[in-house]
Amino acid sequence: MKKVRIGAAQGFYGDTIEAAVATAEKGDVQYLCFDALAELTMAILVKDKRKNENAGFTKDIPLQMKALLPYVREKGIKLLTNGGGINPIGAQQEILRVAREMGVSGLKVAVVTGDNVLDRIPEFLEKGYPLNHLETAKSIEDVKRRLEFANAYIGAEPIVKALEGGADIVVTGRTTDTAQFLAPLIYEFGWSPDEWDKLASGVFMGHLLECSAQSTGGNFSGNWWEIEGFDRMGYPIAEVSENGNFIISKVEDRGGLVTVDTVKEQMLYEIHDPSAYITPDVIVDLTNVKLENAGSNKVSVTGVKGKPRTDTLKVVMGYENGYASQVIVGFSWPDAMLKAKKVDEIIRIQLERYHLNYQEVRTDFMGYNSLSGPLAHDSQSELNEVFLRMVVRAETKQEAARFSRLFPPIALNGPPSMSGFAGNASPRALLGMWSTLLPREEVENQVKVEVVEV
Amino acid sequence: MAIVKLKDIAQTRSGDKGNTVNVGVFAPNQAIYQAFLTELTAERVKEYFTGLVEGEVTRYELPNILALNFVCTEALDGGGSTTLRLDNLGKCFGANMLRLEIEIDDQLLKVKKRGE
User: Fold this and answer.
1) Alpha-carbon gap: A267 to the closest alpha carbon of chain B (Å)
2) Does residue B70 sit at the A interface (CB-CB below 8 Å)?
3) Is the minimum CB–CB distance between A321 and chain B shorter than 8 Å?
4) Which of A3, A82, A402, A419 has the fewest CB atoms within 10 Å, i.e. the most exposed one?
């Protein structure tokens, strides 16, 4: 029976390429699929593109290509990535450039465009699509002039077309995290657009692979200290059968662990209603999924159900939302916490005196409550050191910049033992996120696949 | 009955989507899953996350993998790229959940350990 083997290559922008190379070498895979994009990543890439028109794709693409093109050539492994981000054509050009530099020829590199709908927002509003916020139902009126990007989440279809066009490498912009993983299955098995259970199984496989080591022991909340090889984690590999069922494993001599317990944590990661995980390709129902041990570092996955896909696509937009300015200062024992609290008090008095009316002033005591907030326990023993973190939200960069200037004088004027001052950094631009829905055909009629041979 | 922290009997994992955080809570066996169903109500979790979660908490049940999924809206002070919080992607919500205490039958604790 025909099986397709797919390896996870990247869980986020900035991920290591080592694991993908190990999978290419020893994982016996036909495809390596990358998920480079998070909501935050789009924000980072937009900032890059603002500085340089040619940027806007993930900068690790040349590195990945240098490491993996030999395997594309020798083993015929195909690479599918959404690392094109805000500028997929730029990414395609970069891949072609690296290939030429390495003397590779006969390679087909496809690019998928059409997810970027920023310039079409006025057109959509004119057509009467309200573009209200998906969660809050608020009107887009306030933010539409501040939009920095707007991308529709597109599915596997155009990637399948690229594979049908003979592509060895497919680079896209904002496809869903799972589209790269599902596309090879549709292409290889010839699944029909209404074989919902199979499509759902393929999407769920993608979901388990898209965060790389998060299903092979990374971020494991159980007995994490028993997991070996965090320094060289193996990324998940799926062996998928024609009926959609699959087995998750990893390259044996890499680190990590594949068990029902490690896989089930990733199963619910960033999932809302488990009976309706909505993607452009299918609505996935996880309520009957069965995870079973299938041997050492092997978990079998069955029982994924699917429901017909929706008529709408999700669009995520980012809008300029002011600036943050952050200062971090440390205090040592004795009375570390008291000292930090005193400085918080001093700064807040000064904010009032100088009429610095920030939209939000936040204080965290690092080493005590900065990651737990109100859930932090009262400290049982006196802390050896505390870092005071203060951060403000301001409308303009200038306003934000004034905040950090309050801190240097505290070094001499305030409580003793202040040290480790990390302030006066440039204010950071904040991006708000705006999710909404659009009729599928409004986006899909503009999606293009272009294959170029080097 | 005994009072026990989730840390000693459960696995958790959390993640973000916009201004929403979800927390998956996994039970080690059927009996403890039943106890979770009674103890870990959406109301209880919403109250527990007071000060972090401003919106609603919805609970989804997954008896097939002995898990509950809590979806918390307005939980990140605006969302990953705009929040002033250090835990901007909600990664620590799962860890914070592990400190929640529930009441559980002593008998169940004898078989509490994962995989045992």
Assistant:
1) 9
2) no
3) yes
4) A419
pLDDT by position in tens, chain A (length 454): 899 999 999 999 999 999 999 999 999 999 999 999 988 899 899 989 989 999 999 999 999 999 999 999 999 999 999 999 999 999 999 999 999 999 999 999 999 999 999 999 999 999 999 999 998 999 999 899 999 999 999 999 999 999 999 999 999 999 999 999 999 999 999 999 999 999 999 999 999 999 999 999 999 999 999 999 999 999 999 999 999 999 999 999 999 999 999 999 999 999 999 999 999 999 999 999 999 999 999 999 999 999 999 999 999 999 999 999 999 999 999 999 999 999 999 999 999 999 999 999 999 999 999 999 999 988 767 899 999 999 999 999 999 999 999 999 999 999 999 998 876 678 999 999 999 999 999 999 999 999 999 9
Question: Do B18 and A291 lie within an 8 Å CB cutoff?
Answer: no
Q: Determine whether the interchain pair B24/A288 forms a contact, defined as Cβ–Cβ distance below 8 Å.
A: no
CA distance B96 to chain A (A): 6
Q: Which residue of A has its CA nearest to B56?
A: A135
Distance to chain A for B1, nearest Cα, Å: 24
Which residues in B lie closer than 8 A to residue A38 (C-beta atoms)? 80
Tokens encoding A225 = 């200290």
Task: Tally A–B CB contacts below 8 A.
Answer: 134
Q: Are strands A78-81 and A169-172 parallel, antiparallel or unpaired?
A: parallel
Mutate to test the interface with A, among B57, B84, B113 (most CBs of A within 10 A): B84
CB atoms within 10 A of CB A355: 6
Q: Does A147 touch chain B (CB under 8 A)?
A: no
Beta-carbon separation of B71 and A267 below 8 A: no
Q: Does A303 touch chain B (CB under 8 A)?
A: yes
ipTM surpassing 0.90, yes or no? yes
Cβ-contact A22, A234 below 8 angstroms: yes
- Which A residues 10-39 touch B at CB under 8 Å? 38-39
Contact assignment for B69 to A268 by CB distance below 8 Å:
yes
